Amino acid sequence: MRYVSTRGGGQPQTFTQILLEGLAPDGGLFVPEAYPHFTPAELAAMRRWSYPELAYAVLSRFADDLPPADLKALVEKTYTAKAFRSDAIAPLRTLEPGVHILGLSYGPTLAFKDMAMQFLGNLFEYVLAKNGRHLNILGATSGDTGSSAEYAMRGKSNIRVFMLSPHGRMSPFQTAQMFSLADPNIFNIAVRGVFDDCQDIVKEVGADADFKAKHSIGTVNSINWARVAAQVVYYFKGYFAAIEADGLKDGSPVSFSVPSGNFGNICAGWIAKQMGLPVRRLILATNENNMLDEFFRTGVYRPRKGAEVFATTSPSMDISKASNFERYAWDLVGQDPVRVRELWKKLDTEGQFDLSSSAYWKKVDDTGFVSDFSTHATRLDTIRRVWRDYQVMIDTHTADGVKVGLDYRETGVPLVCLETALPVKFAETIREALGLDPERPAGFENIESLPQRFEVMDADTGAVKRFVESHTA
Ligand SMILES: *Cc1c(COP(=O)(O)O)cnc(C)c1O
Fold first, then answer.
1. CA-wise closest residue to 461 among 132, 164, 256
2. Each residue's pLDDT tens digit, 133-189
3. Which residues form the pocket of ligand 1, taking CB atoms under 6 Å from any ligand atom?
4. Ligand 1 center from residue 188 Cα (angstroms)
């Protein structure tokens, strides 16, 4: 399996070669030259496989330059009942026949990003050791990504993490999760500013090629191909668990509803569908920051300016552009890099592109995507409704997905709603909806009272560089 850039630059590369890369050198995203495919007979045989078995089956198609025994060991080391709180790893809960919630939030930081990031931690450590290299990960977070990266990389050999976050702007729970880590390879930098300031610093450091090379700077943002690949696995798991739960025959179609921001999660669903998994609808749910919903309704893709982004009660979906969207666009335009370059040039010059009058627009229907958005009011209503009707407490992001999922549900087709975080992470809004405190999973009882370790800094790229310099060997 070789990987190419959506914008056509460079030579095809292997999985390991692109593993530690962010954007392709030409500014595009890495995609497989062709998607691997499972036949109906192969899928039928996988119906009752465990999560690590499914992970190996899927990932061995993408990471075919790793020795199979090593990949198997990495997968088994990652997807354990200890790390994910049950043998199911991603347990399916049935609300009523035909409506299910796939639990993707039982990893160490209680959000779905752990599903891929935990694997990345082990994979990075393995590849760095093999090549005698080290890596300094520099990132910016407004909450979930940063903690997920830190918990994946803590204590790993040859890896350090420098994570910027806006000082005093994360929830107390999220702050405690990150800042209470005592591992010497984790550095929390609280920037006096907002998330965009943190992001700008990371971009500026990344643009300094000398500094980047000298200090082996890397990232783990949502465009990393290995993250997307690892997320494909749970669509397989959710699919099989749903047809089992509903007593359906092999090959029956299933729809997924996905709370979406950067388009990383649902992009994995799109890839699973192209690998032959019988996915019917991919139901995309946004919050008030609805640029993706706008695209799927009108054909216009218009990233927002920082100041246009609303701060919502599903904050992990508050984004100004959907970084992974280019992977879907690549497929939509028939994997033609010339077309992708044209579209992204338009974004640069005009701030948007419009596919509504092109031949590609008709293809969108065939891809199975439908979309809608949720607001604070519908979010709270959905949390109440699921609690009242099923005695199940869902978080605010999951609620956006459940709201839209139920609206676009079809009779006879199981609906799997992806649970992207646990309610305890967003307790304030849960209290507003239900007048109740969400349950705290074991190990999180007193997290806010643990000692915290972090460095407060001005939004100054030079200061961040000096800090990284003085903390790398
Ligand atoms: C990151 C995140 C999302 C959005 O996922 P994307 O891959 O960015 O679309 C949704 N919910 C939660 C809780 C998240 O942390």
1. 164
2. 999 999 998 878 899 999 999 999 999 999 999 998 888 888 999 999 999 999 999
3. 111, 113, 144, 222, 259-265, 316-317, 397, 420-421
4. 21
* The pLDDT value given to residue 22: 82
Q: What is the pTM of this model?
A: 0.97
The number of C-alpha atoms within 13 Å of 247 and in the hemisphere containing its C-beta is: 1
**Cα–Cα distance for residue pair 314/321, rounded to 1 Å:** 16
Round to whole Å and give the CA distance between 368 and 40: 19
334: its two tokens: 């028939």
Share of the chain above pLDDT 70, in %: 100
Distance CA 221, CA 137 (A): 10
d(CA 72, CA 464): 38
Q: Are 282 and 273 in contact (CB under 8 A)?
A: yes
Cα Dmax for the chain: 60
Copy the structure tokens of residue 404: 């839209």
66-113 pLDDT, tens digit per residue, is: 999 999 999 999 999 999 999 999 999 999 999 999 999 999 999 999
What does the pLDDT average to over 277-299?
98
Tell which residue, 227, 261, 199, 240, has the closest CA to residue 420: 261
Instruction: Report the amino acid identity of residue 458.
Output: D
Q: Which atom of ligand 1 is nearest to the CA of 143?
A: 15
User: Catalytic: 113?
Assistant: yes
DSSP calls for 397-450:
HHHHHHHHHHHT--TTS-EEEEE-B-GGGGHHHHHHHHSSPPPPPTT-TTGGGS
For each of the domains in the chain, give its residue range(s) and CATH number, in order of start.
85-110+226-434 (3.40.50.1100)
The tokens 């982004």 sit on which residue?
A: 309
Predicted confidence (pLDDT) per residue in 5-27, tens digit: 999 999 999 999 999 888 898 99
145 CA to centre of ligand 1 in angstroms: 9
Q: How confident is residue 203, by pLDDT bands cut at 50, 70 and 90?
A: confident
Question: In sequence order, which residues have a C-beta less than 8 Å from that of residue 382 and are 6 or more positions away?
Answer: 374, 394, 399, 400, 402, 403, 406
Q: Catalytic one among 72, 77, 82, 113?
A: 113
What would the two tokens of residue 94 be? 């049935």
Ligand 1 atom closest to 260 (CA): 9
Helix axes 68-78, 113-131, angle to 10 degrees: 140
Task: Give the nearest ligand 1 atom to 323 CA.
Answer: 8
CA of 317 to the centre of ligand 1 (A): 6
